[in-house]
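subagent[fold] <- orchestrator: predict structure for attached chain, return tokens only, no commentary.
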Amino acid sequence: MVSDYESWRRWVFDHPVAGEGERPWYFAGGDMAFDPEADVEKALLWITKLFGEANLLPDDFSMAHIGQGLWFLIDPSGSSHMFVLTNPAIPFAKRADGIASIAALYQGLFDPQCSRAKGARKLHSICAVFWSVAPFAPNGNGAAPTEQDQAFLDVLEKIAMLENPVCRKSVLEALDLWKGSYPEKAKAIRAKITG
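subagent[fold] -> orchestrator:
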């Protein structure tokens, strides 16, 4: 079992990259080195730090390794890490920084690195479908968003300002989910992209 951030970070990203048609390491079965449900506070702290320092990942891992690791973290079929950002058992004041760190992930990693360039396919794909895959959905409905929903809407607004078309497309896909609960806010964010 991993017990510190650096070991967890290596565990997430330092695995052979699955080839086309192959299943990634986290579907191979066996024990996981860290269970985010067993220590939600630590999982939240580590996710927040990782996303906040996402610009540093290319110093230590290839784009393919980063993409595969992010798929593991973000897709609930890989792990339950993302649920800590919406876990009501953790005070919102703590989760707010974690939610905000998604913008840093986009600004520091996806915006400068996400493309269809060699080795970046997995990174490109998780950037493009982040909001469709991650277990985030509005938990309120109406003109005044809940604290949690407002935090996610703030992140979407920040990402909408980025230049990378893949990042912007991911926001548009997210807004398709959020417009049912917050049509005016979704429309305003969409306008930042579409003009």
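orchestrator: received. Logging for downstream: The chain has eight helices and no strands. The mean pLDDT is 94.
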